[in-house]
Design brief:
The chain has about 575 residues and is an alpha+beta fold. Helix content is about 25%, strand content about 35%. It is built from eleven helices and 19 strands. It has a twelve-stranded antiparallel β-barrel with strand order 8-9-10-11-12-13-14-15-16-17-18-19, surrounded by four helices. It has a three-stranded mixed β-sheet with strand order 3-5-4, with no helix packed on it. Strands 1-2 form a two-stranded antiparallel sheet. The longest helix has 21 residues, at about 155-175.
Length: about 575
């Protein structure tokens, strides 16, 4: 039993699992989408930026300004501004900050600048990161994402420890009689913790699939976001996530520490947590972070909202996205599902509804966009269905951990390197989940002036779970070392239509498993066609085929197949379906 069981029991009266948290995430993203929170069609003013504190020269940057802002206000900079803020190193320069930062264009030399009408461009010089907050006199007490000053190593350590203690304390009150191996599960103490630390043994536990593969990963995402929202980088936060999971396994319960929980919370938590942190930051970055945006960001990443509320200006500076090319969509649809099982002939038909959100962050091709931070590119997908027993159909995240951009000729741009992924796929009758590292590439190829092909190809190894088998104890699935691959293609036909196909394959072996008696092969093919009808609104069709083959020495071979046809309405962030343009205009 894990910490996720405790979280699970706390909200059992509402829905019975942690899935409502993810449903809330989908809801806020749908609200954000309808309100244009991540909108790409904004007035953009392009400026050449000169870093006056170094000799790096001029680089390009785009500043997003809402269309309703008709001009830029101008005022003189106080003479003591240079003394108060060390970023002002030269006697004459201009500074532009977005309206949400409540600053204006300023001329240190005292000259007047013409107003800049909406939609126009101007050449101005900058001497600092535009994400800096000039409203706080003492910069040492405020987080600076560029330099790392103001970040904290102590605060997330205390927060994670406090979260674990609180979780254990609540579990003692709400589940005082839960026992395993003759011991009360949550009555842990120094003696049991020391025994776990010194003797272990580390095992693969027998908790349910959703608890182990979903709830534990979300718990790890909480650890990760607590560290990220206090200014720590991805790799630093990954260490906190891993140690947070380790602390719970050692001291949170009297049960034996669990290997699979350590992977799901300590590793998968990072691959799920980073996209949540980035999306919450992006919501705050695009527009004034008022009440609704703060609430939306807190629902996407509760630790981010908590630290912004508790510490105010200290961690109120928004994580700089570097203006990534983004494509997101929200889809609502009606479904028809057919199910067959070859080993034990049966059939099932079901009509229902579905809602999903997906975002691609950092699409290849934008000139000057860097891929020097983990998850500067990522793909996030969340799908819910109208099935009371299993409402979360999938939750998937993959991102570039280490890699670089490349180009082939004038028409192809791409990235390649090491990707980290977390997949949770749970159709009605069988399921698969994995945490993996993969090598691969993502790119875009302009086939003609208006047609583009986007693609991703990955192959890797990880640790996963799958099945719908008559396993031992509480488990109806098995763990094992997992090989997996992905091929995704998206054909974009101008602003008219998009055709896409995604194939995923998982092989869950009997290596590193407590039941080395068989294997699973699970495939998933997703085909879709989308037509834009007006503005950002589109309609489309989708066919999703999921198949499972189970091969076990003590069970009959099993073959299961599910096909789901969906008619969908789609809200698009981009009328060109996310195609990135880098070519020179004619």
């Amino acid at each position: 039993m894990g910490a996720a069981d405790t979280l699970n029991s706390l909200i059992k009266s509402a829905a019975g699992t942690c899935k409502p948290i993810l449903g809330m995430l989908l809801g806020i993203m749908m609200i954000s989408a309808s309100n244009g929170s991540f909108a790409q069609d904004r007035t953009l003013i392009s400026f050449p930026i000169q870093d006056l504190s170094s000799d790096r020269g001029i680089s390009e940057e785009k500043i997003t300004r809402p269309k309703e802002v008709s001009d830029a206000k101008i005022e003189k900079t106080p003479a003591n501004r240079m003394e108060k803020y060390p970023y002002f190193q030269r006697p004459a320069h201009y500074t532009l900050l977005t309206p949400r930062q409540q600053c204006a264009l300023q001329d240190v030399a005292g000259g007047e600048l013409p107003q800049i009408p909406s939609g126009k461009s101007a050449n101005l010089f900058f001497s600092q990161d535009l994400s800096l907050n000039f409203n706080t006199p003492d910069r040492k007490q405020v987080l600076d994402w560029r330099t790392g000053s103001g970040k904290s190593y102590l605060i997330p350590a205390l927060e994670i420890s406090g979260f674990i203690l609180a979780l254990n304390g609540i579990a003692r009150l709400t589940n005082p009689d839960v026992t395993e191996d003759g011991k009360k599960v949550y009555s842990s103490n120094f003696s049991s913790s020391w025994d776990h630390l010194v003797h272990g043994p580390w095992v693969i536990d027998t908790d349910g699939f959703g608890v182990n593969q979903l709830n534990h990963s979300y718990q790890g995402a909480i650890y990760q976001n607590l560290a990220r929202s206090t200014g720590l980088g991805f790799w630093e936060s990954a260490g906190y996530t891993f140690m947070g999971s380790f602390l719970w396994e050692i001291g949170g319960e009297t049960t034996k520490p669990s290997i699979n929980d350590q992977i799901a919370s300590g590793i998968a938590g990072n691959f799920l947590g980073e996209p949540l942190f980035r999306m919450a930051s992006l919501l705050l970055e695009h527009g004034d972070p008022g009440f609704w945006r703060e609430l939306g960001a807190a629902l996407i990443s509760p630790p981010t909202g908590f630290n912004r509320l508790v510490f105010g200006d200290r961690f109120g500076v928004i994580f700089p996205s570097h203006d990534p090319p983004i494509f997101w969509r929200v889809r609502l649809g009606a479904t028809r599902t057919d199910y067959t099982s070859g080993g034990n002939p049966e059939s099932f038909e079901h009509n229902g509804a579905t809602a999903d959100f997906s975002m691609t962050y950092g699409l290849p091709g934008k000139p000057g966009y860097p891929y020097n931070r983990p998850f500067d590119y990522f793909q996030f997908e969340l799908t819910t269905v109208s099935n009371g027993d299993n409402s979360l159909e999938n939750l998937m995240s993959r991102g570039l951990l280490l890699g670089k951009a490349y180009e082939v000729g004038e028409s192809f741009r791409g990235i390649w390197g090491l990707y980290g992924s977390y997949d949770y796929i749970s159709p009605r009758f069988f399921r698969v989940s994995s945490t993996a590292l993969s090598f691969g590439t993502t790119g875009q190829w302009w086939l003609s002036r208006s047609a583009a092909l986007q693609s991703s190809a990955l192959v890797g190894m990880g640790y996963g779970a799958a099945g719908n088998i008559s396993g031992e104890g509480q488990r109806d699935y098995h763990y094992g070392a997992t090989g997996q691959g992905l091929l995704a293609l998206r054909l974009i036909l101008g602003d008219v239509a998009m055709l896409e196909a995604t194939l995923r394959e998982y092989y869950i072996s009997d290596l590193a498993s407590t039941t080395p008696r068989g294997s699973e092969i699970i495939g998933r093919l997703n085909l879709g066609l989308t037509f834009r009808i007006y503005g950002h609104h589109a309609i489309g069709v989708q066919y999703l085929l999921s198949a499972r083959d189970g091969d076990y020495v003590d069970l009959p071979n099993q073959h299961q197949r599910m096909g789901t046809f969906t008619l969908v309405y789609t809200l698009l962030s981009d009328t060109r379906f996310g195609a990135v343009e880098w070519r020179k205009s004619r």
